[in-house]
Protein 1
Amino acid sequence: MTLRDPEAGHATVLAAGSIGALVIVLVAALLLTSAVIASHQARAAADLSALAAARGSAPSCDEARRVARLHRATVHECRPDGAYVDVLVGVLPAGAAARFGEAQARARAGPETGEELSGGDDRTGP
């Protein structure tokens, strides 16, 4: 009768466990990355939609929806407030992260108030 080494096979179990943990971390990182990308897209779409809506003599929510659609976003709320416009948009993350819901962002745009920007150097002197 031969005795087997009691340590035999432990490396296989350790390697399988390590690979499983690595796969879980990788999937979590991919989900997080997808959510962050959707958040950035939502913020950009909200800013651009609000700016587009505020352009012109009267705010136009139709223009906000058109610009949001170009950025694969959906306008959930568009409220003109005088010369200003508030926009809330949502972007659905890609892949499996879509199960957790969409990323939303809000933006407000309108005419510039206060002093006009000079666009140059305000320093005086030699």
Note: Confidence is low (pLDDT under 50) at residues 115-126.
Protein 2
Amino acid sequence: MAKTFAFLPLAAAAAAVFVATGGTQAHHVDDLPLTCEIAVTDGAFGPQYQGLVHATETVHGSYEMQFAKHGANTANVTQSGNFSVRAGDTAVLGQASMGRRAEVEATLTLRFDGIKMICATDPQFDL
């Protein structure tokens, strides 16, 4: 049975507050070999979203990055594949710019060592 970890950013900024539970056993985020975040920066055509993974140990696994745009136009983008991050490194596993004047939700799902980790933004509205 895969363990699911939900990582909920405090805001769309790099800093995040994490809550982790898995199966019948609770885990502390410090016990995991990596953390994830959704970074949001200003880009030429609107906010740029990046799924980032920071590793304290070398980790191999798979990822799925999903972006959902709501507003005048809607769009759904999914990027996925395998990843490998060395100890001490940060990897960009997915990125997209969804344009201005849109509500965007982004979710990064990681699978490694029998663990399923989810990092997600709260819906953000950019004027």
Note: The chain has one domain: 3-125.
Protein 3
Amino acid sequence: MGPLPFLHFSCRNRSHRTAVTVVRDEALTKTYNRFHDPAETANDIRRLRDLHASMDRMALHAYGWNHLADRVQPISLDAANKDDHKYRDRLF
């Protein structure tokens, strides 16, 4: 896969992210704090998560790591799966 599909998708992600910040009158920090909050279920934030996950899969495919791209799923880190507290409650 060449860079054009990824760039096109990246632009869609940026457009959605911009729309979220404008509609909610939020800066990126507040938007991404909501993005990482596992309790946040708003449709616009769920869509932003989906877009990020799709871009992650596209990047893995671009590097030829298809076996990872086909099974990768974003998870929210917590005490059960991450010892380093600074990343807990973050979506990866």
Note: The two ends are 24 Å apart (CA to CA).
Protein 4
Amino acid sequence: MESFSSTQAGTMIYVYQRAIESLKKGYFIQPERIVRKGSWEKELENKRRLQKQAVASQSAMEVRLNRALEEAEKYKLELSKLRQNNKSVTSFSEDQFSNI
């Protein structure tokens, strides 16, 4: 069994008492830092919430882009019909003038 000096033993007792008090207060002791019990849960919950918001935002953006694409296709088709109609009217007018 290892023997400790009274100073070392006193220090160890103090450290253990502080650790027990911290645990009773809801703190986890990690080598790098002391973390409040539940803070990692809150952080995880915040990250999940942010991820859900990002997914929802991306989904909304995709819906808006699809609507814009559909509208652009509609106008493209309408423009194509108008050009075709314009060609028909122009050729019809030229035929009428050539017959006169």
Note: The chain has a mean pLDDT of 79.
